Amino acid sequence: MYERALTPKLTKGNRSLLLLGPRQVGKSTLLMSMKPDLTINLASLETFRDYVTDPSRLERELRAIAGERTVFIDEVQKIPELLNSVQVFLDERPRRFRFLLSGSSARKLRRGQANLLPGRIHSHALHPLLACELGEDFSLEGALAHGTLPGIYSESDAEIRHEDLRSYSDIYLREEIQAEALVRELGGYARLLDLMAASSGQILNVNALCRDAGVSYETCRRYIEILEDTLILFRIRAWSGSDRASLVAHPKLYLFDLGVRNAILRRPLDRCFDDERGLLFEHFVAQELYRRTGSLWPELSIFHYRTRHGAEVDFILQIGREIWAVEVKSGSHVSRTSLAGLRSFSDRVSHVERKIVVFLGKRRQLIDDVEILPLSDFLSEIPA
User: Which residues of 151-169 are buried (b: 16+ CB within 10 A; e: fewer)?
Assistant: First the structure.
């Protein structure tokens, strides 16, 4: 089991927790490592049937337990009504029970009109593994080809790893989300999923996606929202400055894991194509940054910058009042001519604390006021 960067946040104090994340990112493993006294696994068909037919059963069972206890409810989005019983005990005797809740669909909780217990419970998101969580096991080539879902990354048999990834993309993303009544038109959804995987890391053009997938604008918008709510997609917003008319305003959209992206597109899962290496490396850095937003780096907001004339910077990091401009290059050499986007941004924004290029060279460099950082140096300088 890999040590997760989120663990100190979860184990500090005695606050009840809701841990959200896609399937197979390690939510259950992480919460079970906190040694709960009672575990209710709603992924078990028998357990699910017991509670879905009688949600008040949880309250009766908890009242029969003496002393202080930690209770883990896995896949709580399957029966959102159980959160009402959780609230009863948090209100009556806040210290008697500590609840550890996991879920893979914030949308399903909201659709079920779930009580998300504001002010009573801390919510966190868990993602696939960060490079720092993998430690000495980290391989950039592996991360670009088959992603960093814990069970898949640690699988030593390449054939099994590939089959698991294809199963994830075919069964979970294409079928299980539909089975949960989140998607009605599977054909349009499947085409759109393929198109979004192909355009992952690029500026979102909903109209083009609608046209190519053969679905309406509203259907396309709803499907994107579904995948964001199940944490399969995330978006990076466009930077908006004072001169907005000359800036591209559309966000970039990214899939949550490169292995899943490659499996959807039927790419090789043991290597990446040479002509996709730059895109995948930028995608990897986007994931490393996004997975830190929220609990690990709460001050961080991420944007991209692009002018209508084509000048662009991959990531603008707003950290409180600080601004960093970060460009990603998949080569081992960086020239002054490749810094035009950083210069364009710094001309618009008067206070840019750091201008950084992340590259695949071995040693850091300095070109004028631009820091040229190897990937390992960059990752070591951001919170984890």
Answer: ebbebeeeeebbebbbebb
Beta pairing class for 312-319 and 202-203: unpaired
For the chain, give the longest Cα–Cα distance: 71
Q: What is residue 68's predicted lDDT score, i.e. its pLDDT? A: 87
Q: Which of 251, 75, 105 is nearest to 182 (CA)?
A: 105
pLDDT 10s digits, 54-95: 999 999 999 999 888 999 999 998 898 898 889 889 888 888
What sections of 112-176 are H helices per DSSP? 131-134, 140-146, 150-153, 158-167
- DSSP 8-state symbol, 320: T
pLDDT over 90 (residue 190): no
Which domains, from first to last, does the chain contain?
Answer: 7-125 (3.40.50.300), 129-275 (1.10.10.10), 292-384 (3.40.1350)
DSSP code per residue over 246-258: GB--PPEEEES-H
